[in-house]
Amino acid sequence: MWDSLRIREWIARGERVYLAYLQGDGRPVEVGGTILNLVDDDALIVRARTGLGLDRTVVVHRHRLLYLESLSDRLTHFAREEFLLDTR
């Protein structure tokens, strides 16, 4: 899940990502956005898109991250699933 080289490539390309992490109170949250920076290979600074069309900046520490995926990886996965469903 945590691949520093891949994360740096996503930052350079401005790749949209989806991630899930634990908030300070232990509740999980999932957001989509753009990684702005990788801090000391231990935390991500993410510009998260909210449902109201507003952006917020979130700092996600590595030990709180549950899930991280780029939009292009997610679309490839969905396209593969659709193909498998269509061929049945």
UniProtKB/TrEMBL annotation:
It comes from Brockia lithotrophica. It comes from the Bacteria. This is Uncharacterized protein.
